[in-house]
């Protein structure tokens, strides 16, 4: 089953174009992707041809084959120019996924260009990955502070007990605030960007123009931080590679914004769900402070990056039961591979699969950079921890198997996370100066200066911008 890179496909081997493909993104996939993966596996084996909005793609389902594809970069290329259907002009002009793949950034680079781009990330994200550095400490303390602002706002808007959507009224605004802070958006630009990110991520009718505006906003941010450097990722990227043009940095920030908003946000919701749906092992691990283990379990059960981005075969190669031809497109599925991994684990007597074997961060040369993983892990752990610090009661108001999911070609995330809640007696309130004490304690480090007035004003400005998105038009905003 391993790829045999040096053999050519026999002439009579069926090509991707000649196979009858079933569309992947159906309502069955929305409600039960595991059932769809299992059926594809029964029909085709470890690799299946599927249709993605009318374009045929090989979906890689089994753990070993997914790992092979992720690790062998000489066979499986990221540069979109390897894609034969694109080079031959066979992709529909208005194919919804094309615009994203045409944004040329680190994920879609190969070899030396890719290594250099990763090195830039390594240098620029490094200061934020570790809670012992000033930047790392400040970031963690900002996450705590934003989480507390949101809880205070909930208490003011909806009272100390009631119903809320932990996705719309906590996770999403929190991640947008963190992005604004980490990227170094000035308030005016931040508000504008925040609203467009929501439009873009929700894929509504104005998502296209909103995407264009978000890219343009990232490019303006790059230019702004080149002129006025700050203690933020954008400025550190420029410091690491001053040759980056504003446009290229804008494209990198755009991709990072998707990771930091949608994907990290999904990881927060999925981890909250793991705890809330009452899995006793998970609850124990959270109360024992093993939040990392809870995140791993959530990543294994519901990987936020369900199907990883495309790879293109550099030459004919055998994978699963098929010959993949040079220039064919494959999508390695972390979600399907996890299902396979757990099936392997449960078939081995006295053996369980390590939760760390998940592919939620990818694998091989394009896996999520260590510094980004550390940073995202800190944000997720802090965001989840803060919920269980402040709420004495949080219960799902829908059975876990009836929660609505958004299943796209790449990302899978909860649309809603509706809960009944009760806040504890010491919960934060708006304008509560005592809260800063808890911010400092929760940031768990030596005494540091309080977050600046400017930073708090910044958070308040953003909250005002987000208020009507979190509570609808009821309270204006
Ligand atoms: C919980 C949150 C996150 C998850 C689950 C996640 C997951 C992933 C995965 C699966 C990949 C590999 C995609 C592929 O091979 O097709 C990836 C790549 C990447 N991630 Fe993350 N990520 C997260 C957060 C972040 C954050 C916060 C940043 C930056 C601020 C980031 C930056 C990157 C970059 C730059 C790459 C591309 C690496 C390359 O192509 O060499 N990620 N991430």
Automatic annotation (TrEMBL):
SUPFAM superfamilies attached to this UniProt entry:
Cytochrome P450
> Which residues constitute the signal peptide according to the record?
none
Gene3D superfamilies xrefs: Cytochrome P450
Any one GO MF annotation of this record: oxidoreductase activity, acting on paired donors, with incorporation or reduction of molecular oxygen
Disordered: annotated span: 425-456
Family as reported in the entry's similarity comment = Belongs to the cytochrome P450 family.
The name this protein carries in UniProt is Cytochrome P450
